[in-house]
Amino acid sequence: MNSVLFVFSCLLTLNSIQGHYWTTWYDRDNPSGDGDHETLYEQKRLGYVCGGCKPIGAQCRVRGSTSTFTRWSGTAPDILAIHCLPTKGLACVNSQQPDLSCNDYEIQYLCPSTSGTWTNYLDRDDPSGTGDWEKVSSFRGDGVNLCNGSRPMCAHCRDVVNQDHYYDTGDTYNTNYDCSWENGLVCTTAVNGGTCQDYEVQFKCPTICTCSSCSCATWTSWLDRDSQGGSGDYELVGPTGHNPVGITQQTERFKTLPLRSLVIY
């Protein structure tokens, strides 16, 4: 077995990218009922967050407080089911608290300013049959060279006929396919409870370059943290707080032959 090296295309560190911006504070729920659910999934049902782009950071606080916390710093006063994650949000369940009551939380997201290019609107399916399947993997399976193999940063979705935003049509979308920047959109009749609209989607693709101060994405050096001994070679990203937008790999033995077929999701 060959040892494998990876190189990632990453956003530059926050302190060297100009133009990132924070959203306003979101507080769409309160802790009545079973708890306080300030999730990105629920917020996206009301409109685009970060303009349809993947948030790169999040911070949370108890409503009315000036003390904030994140996934990696600070402390929440409650036991959280979802701990202020950029791509998931926050959730607090009343039954998991010692006093059976959560605080009322609010969350804001850090949005990327990284340069990129929007695709045209794409429409590969119609809602006949089981529904409308506008999946990233399906576009690539159809031979569409979406973002040159990199992971899209943003997504916009609308119905073909009226061009209403996906969140204004009244349809219910399959889990993880609610105009997702990573997965696209899927609306099935089984989940929606009826015929879906016909949708089209567009994606924003990252600009990969070698600049040191502009707001583009750059490649890391080759990383090799493990060897192929034991059960295999584990070159995992880990919980760094920022996600690569692209990845390529090569064997350590044959470094002149990069294996560029792998896309990480």
UniProtKB/TrEMBL annotation:
Lineage: Eukaryota, Metazoa, Spiralia, Lophotrochozoa, Brachiopoda
Coiled coil (UniProt feature): none
Keywords of the record: Glycoprotein, Secreted, Signal
Stretches assigned to the WxxW domain: 22-111, 118-205, 219-237
Pfam family, one: Mucin2_WxxW
UniProt-recorded name of the protein: Uncharacterized protein LOC106167560
Gene from which the chain derives: LOC106167560
Any one GO cellular component localisation term in the record: extracellular region
Entry's localization field: Secreted
Signal peptide: 1-19
